[in-house]
């Protein structure tokens, strides 16, 4: 059915160390999403940034932040802030394309525990590459 509407963009989310060693390679079809989870380095509470494969491109769509702690907060005009019902908030409808469909993250060690989640699969980037440069990229190909 997708072929009738145009090419679908099958995707893989690939996390690699600076030397090119793969940490994770996870399937992310067109329209599917994934999240980066971590614990705030000062307050310790969980933070979540979620992305989608939209037309073969990595797009930041929402973020959950339980507090307005250091480095966190809503930027007016960038999505909309709504309560999460638990004292924190979601920033929804960010819809911000990630330049080059990739970015570099330096996972925190120990309790920060940066994790990559696709569906039920969770990979600890902090366990695999603490304090190292990790490139997270959406690699796509057109399918007809």
Question: Mind sketching the topology for me?
Answer:
Elements: H1 2-5, E1 8-17, E2 22-27, E3 33-39, E4 46-54, E5 57-65, E6 80-83, E7 89-92, E8 96-97, E9 102-105, E10 115-118, E11 121-124, H2 125-128, E12 134-143
Protein name: DUF1850 domain-containing protein
Pfam family, one: DUF1850
Organism: Roseicyclus persicicus
Notable characteristics:
single chain, 144 residues, mainly beta, 8-stranded antiparallel sheet, 4-stranded antiparallel sheet, 12 strands, globular, disordered N terminus
Write structural notes for this entry.
By secondary structure, the protein is mainly beta. The chain has one domain. 6% of the residues lie in helices and 51% in strands. It contains two helices and twelve strands; from the N terminus they run H-E-E-E-E-E-E-E-E-E-E-E-H-E. The strands form two sheets. Strands 3, 4, 5, 6, 7, 8, 10 and 11 form an eight-stranded antiparallel β-sheet that branches. It has a four-stranded antiparallel β-sheet with strand order 2-1-12-9. The longest helix is centred in the N-terminal third of the chain and has 4 residues. It comes from Roseicyclus persicicus. Pfam families: DUF1850 (PF08905). InterPro entries: DUF1850. This is DUF1850 domain-containing protein.
